[in-house]
Amino acid sequence: MTQIILGDHEGIELALRRFKRQVSKAGIFADMKKHRHFETPIEKRKRKALAKQKQRKRNYR
């Protein structure tokens, strides 16, 4: 859970910017997008196979 505590003279824009930065660092948006739709086991296997291929390609160089 990401939480922001406002300082004494901190504006809402600065606090919002800090909140967005913490949310992105925590990986909440990526996790939310990943769980937005149901993924069948076949789709999951395909996605993992593609990720493995990309990883091998990156490590090969």
Description:
There is one protein chain. This protein is mainly alpha-helical and 61 residues long. The protein has one domain. Helix content is 69%, strand content 0%. The protein has 3 helices and no strands. The mean pLDDT is 90.
Total count of domains: 1
Low-confidence segments, given as residue ranges, are none
- H/E topology pattern: HHH
Overall, the morphology is elongated
The end-to-end distance, rounded to whole angstroms, is 38 Å
Q: Determine the mean pLDDT.
A: 90
Number of strands: 0
Sheet with the most strands, sense and barrel status: none
Rounded radius of gyration (Å): 18 Å
* Strand proportion: under 5%
The helix count comes to 3
How much helix, percentage-wise, in residues? 55-70%
Give the helix/strand class.
Answer: mainly alpha
